[in-house]
Amino acid sequence: MNLLQQKLAESLTIFDGAIGTEIYRRNFFVNASFEQLNLTAPDVILDIHHQYLKAGAEVLTTNTYNANSRRLAKFGLSEQTEAINRAGVKLAREAAAGKALVAASVGPVGEPDSDQDRRTRAELLAEQIRALSDADFIIFESLRRAADLKAVLEAVAEFPELVYVPSFAIEPHPHINDSATIAEFMEQLNASRPCPAPTAIGLNCGGGPESTLGVLEELTALTQLPVIVQPNAGQPKGVDGRMIYMTSAEYFSTYAKRYAMLGAAAIGGCCGITPDHIEELARTIKPLMQAEKRALPALEVKECDLKPEVPLAERSRIGCKLADGAFIKLVEITPPRGFDLTGTIAGAAKCKAAGIDAVNLPDGPRASARISPLVTALEIQRNAGIETILHCCCRDKSLIGLQADLLGCAGVGINNILFITGDPPKLGDYPFSSGVFDVDSVGLVKIQKRMNQGVDLGGKPLNAVTKMVIGVGADPNAIDLEREYRRTCEKVEAGAEFIITQPVFAPEALFVFLDRIAHLNVPVIAGIWPLTSLRNAEFMRTEVPGVVVPDAVMERMAADESKEAQREAGIAIARESVAAIRSRVRGIQVSAPFGNVDTALRVLA
């Protein structure tokens, strides 16, 4: 296994962004060779590499994209081809200092300028490959045409041990200027059976973050190789004589998360993507993906140490209703940002009076800081007389701290818990806070299952079994529904006894998911969010992970400018969703938007 294979197998890998964009930002203009700077301004190139490494890049790409002798000849530099390429690798290697891999960048050769240049594209590429031999691997970037890939495959045939990645730039409108589709490229690649075979497949440049998403979805169905995604920042705009890319770091990281959900093995950037974008990517995506890949430490538990679980119907009122097959009605109330629980308890009391079965309490939704949901649950159960379903999030506490909370819940009679992995801190109000993620929701369910059998996470016996009803979340709106299905199966296999979904605005998506998991025979409670305004609908659509608000819903919310009319439209849409899905699920959970319990109760009335 080569170094790139090892890195991609470990976890989601962060590549760097554009070199050319950073050179341009430092007032070097395009009428000169950027690659020559490897020799004439090495400190500039070294600084760019250092900035990407500091931002969190785990792969640094050399400043050699146009460093083939044909391209360099336009600047009278063809005699320096080898020196420029070797210097490019040396600078990246120096900056990496053993902390990152070095990818040698090779761009398309281009057409000859004169009849005297009779060398084939493959010969020119082979010349550059030899000069880049000290890199960890070569990435052939921005392959747009079949002829580009053909030249690469002919060139690599001379190097049986070469580690390389062909990376395709798929235009938003293929076949313009002979550009190929990803399906055509993969057909060409599979038919040629190259030797050596590529280690991974790349997507770079192309039409920006959004259009790259569709290409990635198509590519993952066409290959079993790891996929490296490096979109550009969209189309630049002229501002005061400069070409500026307008894609924000936050927008880029939002799409990066979607790439990861579709199975991308590595994510970086191309034209217009800067160290700021890569820093946002590393902070936002890396912790979440690491949490999903971590395995729960093995527990050495002898079967004789395990005690019988308390029957589901005897653990709580929710457990009883689940066991009896009764329909369940829940209201989700978010704990307040302050410490005054008077309003929250009053809202919970209203829910009890309205016949609601339990109040669902999120744990720092969207990585926000609020009063402890455990304290909130305890006060609600004591003062409002209604059961709670407490969220237990993996983000903020170590395994020891999580077990302490679970034991605390058992000790005070909080016996319904929804286990979630949690959003990374970068998504919330405290982006520099550290996410712990010792374990994900699957691992946490396993821990609670053991505790229900009288054993803690270290395999040590408890003085009594816990009586927790184990719930998990699911996202019927997931871009990669197959991955969401696999995760749901893992949660149920680990011990989940019920599921609460993300808010549903399109019943059809929920039905597809329900059909997919029907064989699991686990009760599903559908989440509903009553939209309060057009602005709220836009926020839910663009800012809340796992929520899809269809165009038809947006149109209804926009039909009337009055806030009251929009609020009524949101309630009507929620009630229609409940009516459409009620017969297919075991319960409904309605969120109290902005703490407005009355709105949630109107939906459930």
UniProtKB/TrEMBL annotation:
Cofactor: FAD; Zn(2+)
Record's keyword terms, sorted: FAD, Flavoprotein, Metal-binding, Methyltransferase, Oxidoreductase, Transferase, Zinc
Binding site for Zn(2+): C205, C270, C271
Domain Hcy-binding: 1-285
Functional pathway: One-carbon metabolism; tetrahydrofolate interconversion
Enzyme Commission (EC) number: 1.5.1.20, 2.1.1.10
Record keyword Transmembrane helix present: no
GO molecular function: metal ion binding; methylenetetrahydrofolate reductase [NAD(P)H] activity; methyltransferase activity
Source domain of life: Bacteria
Pfam families: MTHFR, S-methyl_trans
UniProt keyword annotation of Endoplasmic reticulum present: no
GO annotation terms (biological process): methionine metabolic process; methylation; tetrahydrofolate interconversion
Entry-linked NCBIfam families: PRK08645.1 (NF006396)
The name this protein goes by in its record: Bifunctional homocysteine S-methyltransferase/methylenetetrahydrofolate reductase
Source organism of this protein record: Victivallis vadensis
